[in-house]
Amino acid sequence: MMPLHTDNLESTMRYALLTTRAIALCPFHPEVMIRVGDSDAETHAYYRARSITKSDGTCWEREDLMEEIVRQLTDAADGVCPRCAQLVASHN
Ligand SMILES: [Zn+2]
Description:
Strand content: 5-15%
Strand order of the largest sheet: 1-2-3
Number of strands: 3
Shape: elongated
Radius of gyration: 14 Å
Mean pLDDT: 94
CATH architecture: Orthogonal Bundle
CATH topology: Arc Repressor Mutant, subunit A
Bound molecules: zinc ion
Helix content: 40-55%
Low-confidence stretches: none
């Protein structure tokens, strides 16, 4: 599991997305994030991120969280790791 840096929005949201299993890391390519496609988990991730407090005791703003969750889910691969898919395709 990646360390959680509560003062970093990207880190906070990634932690929330991973721990709620809204996104998963490819076991063969740990740098690849895969969007599982579970909308309940994604909602849960948003609320988890919203409950994480920064070192000054405040929480992240709703707008910032919404923007960041959309960004990370959009950046993530859809359902399958593209590098694994490419490997499989090259062996066929
Ligand atoms: Zn992979």
